[in-house]
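Q: I'm writing up a methods section and want to include an example of the input and output format. Could you take the sequence below and give the corresponding predicted structure tokens, formatted cleanly so I can copy it straight into the document?
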Amino acid sequence: MSAKHDFLEYFTVNLSAGFETVSIGETNLWTSPESPGVSVERKIMRGGPSDGVEVFTLSNPAISVCVMPTRGMGIWRVMVRQGEKMVRVGWESPVPLPVNPRNVPLDQPDGLGWLRGFNELVARCGLESNGAPEFNENGTLRYPLHGRIQNTPAYSVRLQIDAEKRELRLTGIMHEGRLFFNSLELESCLTLPFDGTGFRVDDTVRNLSARPAEFELLYHVNVGQPVADAGSRTEIPFQRIVPRCPWAAQNITSAPDYHAPVTGEPEMCFFYELAADENGNTKTMLRNPDGDFAMTLGFSVNEFPYFCQWKAQHAAEDGYVTGLEPCINFPNTRSFEQKNGRVAILKPGASRHFGLDFSFAVTKEEVETASAAVSALQAKCPDPIAVHAPIPEWCE
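A: Here is the clean output for your methods example:
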């Protein structure tokens, strides 16, 4: 990394066994004295558009997770141990480094300023809106692409080391509100065990207003090379799949499969209702071309009733990537989603929880075991429906 992106130096803090709460303003590095390889790093980026971005890296011997409180607790990337090597799970965006939200022009006239900061593995879209830009009758911007929460810095961040439960927890709280409109709080907690190749995200959205609040939410989980590449495949247990546009409709039979980068190929998106077990739990998987590495994303359809698969298989230099996206609404304009009853309403003081389990298989045997679990979910819906054209109530 060039000098202009050097990180601050960090210091060592030793913590006694048991539950500890650490002031992040004073803690730049923690290494477990009892559990080798378990650590927390805190770095602040300096120089260029990244200046001031705070990055926490939570690690155990098998996995490292980079979380950015400055960018709405987004997860920049994950590194997973596979034998003697580390596999990067994330993607190479044309935006090479995290961007401080003050340098992301969300309100630029075309509504696409959000893309100037987009490079995370996990980016939240919401809360007031989360879909395509929407404009007023006079042509001015009403709702920008994907909303504001991903570019809202956490105003409260807490690091907890629980030696008894053997886990690290990083919690951040963001507030999205304005006078005469919503006042919503999103509290996000990432939990990393002291061992294993998985972590969990637990988010809670609260309405702080004395009035009902409307909101939308989508989790953009984005993976590129080497995990998503020519020969990769998704396994998504579904009740129904619908192509978002005619281009996606032409490719619906190959929705699970990925091809080599094609310069200039348009993006495509597929909308799903997923199959789940009797408790509403489901999981989706993306496996690499060799079938010896996979990412599994588990969640509840009671919390996330919809799911999107985004494929952008253009040149690697332009950001070859796929998105696996649990959501409470589809990423159309907000007025379209409201018309079709998919904008959520929170009563005054009410809250909703959203949980995501990330796990990684690092051998062919583990990949096949994960695949069998997804297949068992699909078996609960033996007659899935593939709709071969956009439908008006789902696709704007």
